[in-house]
Amino acid sequence: MSQSEQRQERQCISCGINISGMSAAKFKCPDCGHMIYRCATCRKQSNLYECPDCGFRGP
């Protein structure tokens, strides 16, 4: 997968918006290491997220 394709697929795990080109957090799931992306709004509001691979939940 090319870097431009990966960039297009980045979506906030909480609200689902496309975050390419936005100020967003990128981190690995604490349990399984799956890459998680969150938009600034969901981070600020502490919206919950769930890892699609292992089901880990966090704020």
TrEMBL record:
Top-level taxonomic group: Archaea
Ranges of residues in domain Small zinc finger protein HVO-2753-like zinc-binding pocket: 12-55
TM helices/strands, residue ranges: none
Pfam families in alphabetical order: HVO_2753_ZBP
Protein known as: HVO_2753 family zinc finger protein
